[in-house]
Structure formats: C-alpha cells, structure tokens
C-alpha cells in the first residue's frame, strides 16, 4: 500500500466497500475509533438527509441519488480524514480517495450473516452472486487506479482486527 505523497490533503480518505454483510460498517467504525477519522456511513447519510429518490420495494432499500450524495460530501472530502462506508463505489469522484478497500467474505459466512439480517431469498441470492463474481472488486478496479485498490478477507473478528491494524499502520505512514 503506497502512500499518496502528491495529495494536498493533510490526511487521507479511505473508501471501504464490498457486498452487504462483508463487515464494512464494523471495520469502518473500528478504524475510525483507532485513528480519530470521521466514519461516513452512506446508507445512514442517505436516510438522515433524504438523499434518495424513494424506496425500491423489490430490493427493499432506498434508491440513492448519487448526485445529492456527492454534493453533500464534497467539502468534507476535501479536508481528508474520512472513512467512507458503502456497498457501491463507481459514482464517487476518483480524486476523493487515497485508498479503496474491498472487503470479501467466504460465501457460507456471508450467507449466514445476510440470513440473520432477515434478507429475502431474492436479495440474499443477489448479494451472494455479487460476492461470487467479485462485482465490487471489479467495480473498484474500473473506477480507481488499481494501485490504490486492495481486497481484504473479512470472514472473522480476527480478520477485521488484522485489517484495522493494517489500515491504521497505513494511515500513520501516509
């Protein structure tokens, strides 16, 4: 993980993405606690600020308005020191991030996590397929310079702890 020496920001911005259930929010929260960075959970932000275009009954979620989300975050991102947590990544401006982490989880572990959340069979199947085909990793590689994209295993609490330690070290070295 190379540090971005060319950035005008004093602190880096990190995007933590991955299929729902891979541990994005848990990892982001722990990393924010360890580094005193701001954790921005996009799903929560969309609900709190009404940055959506309504509810999708089929997918059981809000239809986020990507332009409104980006407008809301623009000034915050310029300052650095942010950990953005969302299951998508292709609509964020490339200039915002110094590191993009894609969390990945073994399918049986992911299935159990999503089932325990009460996901419908359709939603569960869609997310498991997304993980099998590494959709989020490919999206990240297509949206950002590959040298800032990193996939990390996120099956267990030990994996999450290791990931937080690795990312904390990266931030300190930045």
UniProtKB/TrEMBL annotation:
Region (NMPbind): 41-64
EC annotation from Swiss-Prot or TrEMBL: 2.7.4.3
UniProt subcellular location: Cytoplasm; Nucleus
Annotated GO biological process: ribosomal small subunit biogenesis; rRNA processing
Binding site for ATP: 21, 23-26, 117
UniProt organism field: Cannabis sativa (Hemp)
Catalytic activity: ATP + H2O = ADP + phosphate + H(+); AMP + ATP = 2 ADP
Superkingdom of source: Eukaryota
Keywords: ATP-binding, Cytoplasm, Kinase, Nucleotide-binding, Nucleus, Ribosome biogenesis, rRNA processing, Transferase
Gene Ontology CC entries for this record: cytoplasm; nucleus
Family listed: Belongs to the adenylate kinase family. AK6 subfamily.
SUPFAM superfamilies: P-loop containing nucleoside triphosphate hydrolases
Molecular function as annotated in GO: AMP kinase activity; ATP binding; ATP hydrolysis activity
Protein name (record): Adenylate kinase isoenzyme 6 homolog
Biased composition (Low complexity): 17-27
Species lineage: Eukaryota, Viridiplantae, Streptophyta, Embryophyta, Tracheophyta
Keyword Nucleotide-binding (UniProt): yes
Function: Broad-specificity nucleoside monophosphate (NMP) kinase that catalyzes the reversible transfer of the terminal phosphate group between nucleoside triphosphates and monophosphates. Has also ATPase activity. Involved in the late cytoplasmic maturation steps of the 40S ribosomal particles, specifically 18S rRNA maturation. While NMP activity is not required for ribosome maturation, ATPase activity is. Associates transiently with small ribosomal subunit protein uS11. ATP hydrolysis breaks the interaction with uS11.
